Amino acid sequence: MDELMDLSSRKTSVTSLNNNTLDALPSHVVRPHYDRTKMTPGIVHIGVGNFHRAHLAWYVHRLMQQGQALDWAIIGAGVREHDAVMREKLLGQDCLTTLIELDPLGAQATEVTGAMLDFLPVDADNKSLIQAMADPRIRIVTTTITEGGYYLDPANQGLDLTHPDIIYDAENPDRPRTAFGAIVAALRLRRDSGVGPFTGLSCDNLQANGTIFRQAVVGLARLSDADLADWIDRHCSFPNSMVDCIVPATGPAELQRVRAFGIDDDVPVTHENFRQWVIEDTFCAGRPDWSLVGAEFSDHVHQYEARKIRVLNAGHQVLANAAEILGVENISDAMMQPFIHALFRKVLTDEIIPHVDPLPGSPVIEYLDLIDRRFANDAIIDTVRRVAFDGSARHVGFILPTIRDGLASGHPIEGLALVEALWARMCEGMREDGSQIEANDPIWDMLTATAAAARQSPSVWLEMQQIYGDLGQHARFADAFAKWLKHIYENGVESAIQLYVEQN
User: Fold this and answer.
1) 81: left (phi over 0), alpha (psi -120 to 50) or beta
2) Is the Cβ–Cβ distance between 99 and 269 less than 8 Å?
3) Is 400 exposed, middle or buried (0-12, 13-18, 19+ CB in 10 A)?
4) Of 183, 477, 205, 429, which Cα lies nearest the Cα of 325?
5) Cβ(210)–Cβ(240) under 8 Å?
6) Which pLDDT belongs to residue 271?
7) Residue 10 has what pLDDT?
8) CA distances from residue 66 to 113, 116, 128, 290 in whole angstroms, order as listed
9) How far, rounded to the nearest angstrom, does the alpha carbon of residue 335 sit from its chain's CA centroid?
10) What's the total number of domains in the chain?
């Protein structure tokens, strides 16, 4: 933060970011070398947040910097009202984004990326999105809609056919609410006009994200048009992929930082000095050669996915709930708390890593060490609140599968039960210092009510079948959860963590 104060104290002229001012940007800022007027669309991306702009859009931009992929420009899209705010800001600066790479040694690299060509209006009936995806030039549709956006049924991990949005889209296929409904509608137009299929590429943190993407699109199509569902299943491709880069939310500090660099950008992005993207090479309508800029096409995506989700994503959840209850604001600060860091290392080493298959030449413990260093990067202001967001989806995707594996194999699950108890305690909505935890989950009201009841009767928390399924019926897990929740309320978070860490 001292460095940020130094940056803010500099007398720096500020240049508004748009196509006409690229040459006026400070000399240290890398900017597009390609002619943006020659870009044509090849990708529609749904869910234009910080991660997308630091990851997929960066890979496309880097190819364009090499004089390639100008026919793979990105059209941004959203299906929620809040996407309209991002649209207005990005269109105001010609869809350019400033990326600031931060590493723990203090080095910073600033780059303006320009792979995004346009941002569609956010229509209630998704008409603009459907028309854009029906364009023959679009060959890939990509998504970052968060883990909770795929309408998974917690009982069987299939498409939740009872969700009101899915029911609505099945009954109103020409004016859908969801991204998947819009995709189905666009694919119907493409089939009927002879344009052909496109590839659906998920960039979300879900194991088998391509498989889940396929089941959402095909499953929804089948509710209204079985022949179309068969056509999509037969002709479209949905590669699995593993994405990785820590990208904090943009707040006042990030806005101050980009202005200190001499750029007036309403939506800059900071990110760590690490990226990884591993993709199955199954694209039905062509693709850019992202391997030229660091991505890897592999037949082992599932192993990369499992390692990342169970170590990095689960590791984030191990840290975040304890930190939130104690009022620790950032992930790097949580890593500096000896007892929270000890919880992280013990749970990951003893209870998660045994269920993660190593990749050739890459022991899982070495990957854990890498994640440890990345989380401790104090140049990245990655808030605990961001990491803890949508726990009802993230615990289901990142923590509970390992608990199930531990119960099935006889491996320990004490620490994971403690992690779930910490989440329940956090969802009560009050920190140990008495301050309020603001709503941070799509089903926050239900979670807070259940957490309050669980204070006296812990089993109530595990009875949320949409999250836990039958896990509450496993005595080893249920008893451990109840023990830890009781201890947290009676003795506090630090005491519970210390007791767990000191166990053999």
Assistant:
1) alpha
2) yes
3) buried
4) 429
5) yes
6) 95
7) 47
8) 13, 16, 31, 11
9) 21
10) 2
Tabulate helix, strand, coil % of the chain (nearest 5). Answer: 55, 10, 35
In this predicted structure, what is the pLDDT of residue 7? 47
Decide which of 297, 330, 358 is a domain's last residue: 297
Q: Which residues of 426-441 are buried (b: 16+ CB within 10 A; e: fewer)?
A: bbbbebeeeeebeebb
Asked if residue 230 and residue 361 are part of one domain, the reply reads no
Q: Is 271 helix (H, G, I), strand (E, B) or coil?
A: strand
Domain of residue 144: give its range.
2-297
Pull the structure tokens for residue 352: 């998660």
Quick count: other Cβ atoms within 10 Å of Cβ 156? 9
Judged by DSSP in three states, 263 sits in: strand
Residue 46: CB atoms within 10 Å: 27
Tokens read off for 426: 């956090």
Q: Please, are residues 279 and 295 in contact by the beta-carbon 8 Å criterion?
A: yes
CA distance 464 to 124: 32
The residue behind tokens 């991505």 is 295
Domain boundary among 297, 320, 348: 297
Q: Between the CA of residue 365 and those of 343, 345, 442, what are the distances in Å?
A: 16, 10, 34
DSSP state for residue 265 in the 8-state scheme: -
Query: 67 with 145, same domain?
Result: yes
**419 touches 403 (CB < 8 A):** no
Instruction: Residue 284: name the closest of 372, 214, 206 by CA.
Output: 214
| pTM, two decimal places | 0.88
The residues, any chain, with a CB within 8 Å of residue 321's CB and separated by 6 or more, are 388, 391, 419, 422, 423, 425, 426
Reported as half-sphere exposure (CB side, CA atoms, 13 A), residue 445 has a value of 0
Q: Does residue 141 sit in helix, strand or coil?
A: strand
Low-confidence stretches of the chain (pLDDT beneath 70): 1-12, 107
Distance between CA atoms of 77 and 340, rounded to whole angstroms?
A: 39
- Are the C-beta atoms of residues 278 and 97 closer than 8 Å to each other? no
CA R_g for the chain: 23
Residue 198, helix vs strand vs coil:
coil
pLDDT at position 154: 72
Q: What are phi and psi of 277, to 5 degrees?
A: -145, 115
Looking up tokens 């959840």 gives 317
Q: Say if residue 341 is in the same domain as residue 403.
A: yes
